[in-house]
Each structure stands twice: as C-alpha cells, then as structure tokens.
Task: inverse folding
C-alpha cells in the first residue's frame, strides 16, 4: 500500500483524548515500521457520562459510520467503551456488525472495531483470567462495566470508580495519579491491570511506570483499540512505549 492508511474514529463530542492517544501511538509506530496513517473523525453528541445520555449518543453512531465511509477510511474505531457496555452484555458485537452493514450499504464496506470489544478481546489474547480495573465513571456505571467484563468470562478481582460525571473533567484527570490508585489495589493474583477502562481518561503516560512498579502487564482501552485497528488492517501490532500488548509479544 503506497498511500497512508486512513484511521476513522467515531467519537463522543466531548472526547478530546482518543484523538490524541491513538494518533500518538500510531505516530510512534512510524519510527519502527514503514506504514503511515492519517486520522479522521465523526462526532456523536455527549457531555455527561450518564446511562440515558450514552444511549442517546449511541443512536447517532450509524450516522457517524456513514459519514466516515464517505471518506473511504480503512478502519473505524468506535471510541466510547462505556456507551457500548451500558447497552447490555455482548452489545459490542451487535454494534460492530450493524455499523459495518451501514458502510456496506454505502458502497464502502469498512472494518469496524470498538473500544469495548477491543478491551475484552485483548484480555482474551493476553490470557488474562483475573484483572483489576480503574475507571473514571460514577460507581453504578463502573459496576456495569465490571459486570460486562465478567460476562465475557474474565474475573474482575477489584476496581476503582473515580466518580467523575462530566466528560471534559474526565479528560482533565492527571495520569500521574494512576500509579497511586493502582498501588491501593490487591494485585497478588492478578494477570493484567486495566489502567483505564475509558478512552477519555488519559493513561498512556503512566503505562510504563505502572508496569515497572507492579511487574504486571498493563492495558488501557486506547491501547486495546490501537491493537484491534492494526490487526484489522493486517499490520503488525507493535508500538514502542505502549505496554505489553503492543510490545510485539502478541
């Protein structure tokens, strides 16, 4: 392929992190692999991370997929984990199939991944049977996320709900706080640490530190989504400095 790969993202209107962390990872990859990327987004309205607003936002995802297919992107990533997980167990599969069908009906069938499916798939790839989870959501939504992961056959041993309802405030959460949050959790029987079960909460700068501190593999929703995008494009899922999943071991 001679032209750059076009990366499409379906993004909540108040999300400002997914369009920084995923491009940062794929740009870093360009130092070690030849492929190049461009980035394109379509937005769904959402300001408050509440179940009703998330459902309303998800209903707009078809329009976003249609718009991105007009640009003939090579892969689409739906960048809101909690919106998918709040719709009920296994919904990530239904969403991916529906959005891919939207692109096909527009004459531009496109691979679709979402951060919810990417996270649970990545945990399976890493053979993670026991995990801990950090999430910025209010406790009821965090419990919904935890239960979704458990429904996929993964034992969530512990979790932290940071209880930040405003989505822009989630983006302002300092990733330097994450190592101390993880340090407060019992990691003795844990296979993988989910440092951010949210694509809006910045976490990439803390991944290497938490891996070094704990001796455990660390994953985030953004890292999992980047892995899923690269695999769907048939590219080697390697990004320097982005944790175990993108180290080349998987």
Result:
């Amino acid at each position: 392929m001679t032209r750059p790969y076009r990366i499409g993202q379906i993004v909540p209107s108040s999300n400002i992190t997914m369009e920084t962390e995923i491009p940062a990872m794929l740009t870093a990859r360009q130092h070690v692999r030849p492929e190049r990327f461009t980035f394109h987004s379509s937005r769904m309205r959402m300001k408050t991370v509440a179940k009703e607003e998330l459902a309303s936002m998800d209903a707009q995802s078809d329009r976003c997929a249609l718009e991105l297919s007009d640009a003939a992107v090579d892969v689409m990533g739906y960048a809101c984990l909690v919106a998918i997980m709040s719709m009920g167990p296994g919904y990530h599969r239904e969403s991916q199939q529906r959005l891919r069908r939207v692109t096909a009906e527009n004459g531009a069938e496109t691979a679709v991944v979402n951060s919810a499916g990417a996270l649970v798939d990545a945990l399976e790839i890493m053979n993670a049977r026991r995990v801990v989870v950090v999430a910025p959501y209010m406790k009821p939504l965090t419990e919904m996320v935890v239960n979704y992961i458990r429904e996929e056959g993964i034992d969530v041993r512990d979790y932290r709900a940071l209880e930040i309802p405003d989505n822009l405030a989630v983006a302002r959460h300092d990733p330097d706080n994450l190592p101390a949050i993880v340090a407060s959790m019992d990691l003795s029987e844990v296979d993988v640490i989910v440092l951010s079960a949210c694509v809006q909460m910045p976490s990439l700068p803390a991944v290497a530190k938490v891996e070094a501190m704990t001796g455990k593999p660390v994953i985030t929703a953004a890292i999992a989504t980047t892995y899923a995008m690269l695999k769907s494009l048939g590219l080697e899922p390697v990004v320097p400095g982005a944790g175990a999943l993108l180290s080349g071991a998987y």
The longest helix spans residues 91-105. Residues 29 and 240 are 6 Å apart (CA to CA). The beta strands are 5-12, 37-44, 75-78, 111-114, 130-135, 155-161, 192-196, 218-220.
